[in-house]
Amino acid sequence: MDTEVPRVLSLLWGQADGARRGPKPALERIGLAAIELADAHGLGGVSMKRVAEAVGVSTMALYRYVDTKDDLLTVMLEFASIPAPDLRRRRSWRSALEAWCRAYRDVLLAHPWMLDIPVTEPPATPEQLRWMEAMVLALDGTGLTSQERTGVLLQLNVYVRGDVALSNGVGEQDDVSPTWVAKVLALADPADYPAVFGLLGSGEFDEDDDPAEQFEFGLQRTLDGIALLVDRRSAG
Questions:
Q1: For a Cys-Cys bond, which of 56, 62, 113, 200 suits 38, CB 3.0-4.6 Å?
Q2: 89 to each of 78, 81, 186, 224, how far by Cα in Å?
Q3: What predicted TM-score, i.e. pTM, was given to this entire model?
Q4: pLDDT per residue over 97-131, tens digit each?
């Protein structure tokens, strides 16, 4: 059965209208211009009109490559994801996945607007598919089933995105921890929340936490769980 592929995907793969392999240079210029706008102003600052002005063409000319705003977002995600990490020289599946997650975190921190784009399906563009390919290949030799590999991919993707989203949200405010502590101390009864007040008494929330350290802690604990499964498959 023939599958109708969206035109923007055909262009990104260089398979539309006899295009050479790889995306057309014009599509790359469009994507990079839109990314620059989003980096500076967020997704709300990106419109077909503003992107066309940045590229130096008419808005109608832009529609030769992207039919809708959703198509433009697809192009932005593709070029914001370049390059995918090369994990082939990593000595273990764990070090490869560590590198993958750190690289993905760097991309999201550089382009926080990426988190505002809903994820509705797995990637279908060349560079984003390379990210997926790198992670799946990293799990070769682990003994994990296809279903388990898919689960690992999803779990790590969700972890990185969630960590960056939380870091971005907290980072937008000043002195978040002291403010939160003050609210809890003013409103809550220690007898009702003894465990929480025990943490408050430890002084943990009085210090500024390093987001990178928090990310690494969560990443290592997540990989510890995956390692248990890999060990179980190896023993079985």
A1: 113
A2: 24, 21, 54, 22
A3: 0.88
A4: 999 999 999 999 999 999 999 988 888 999 999 99
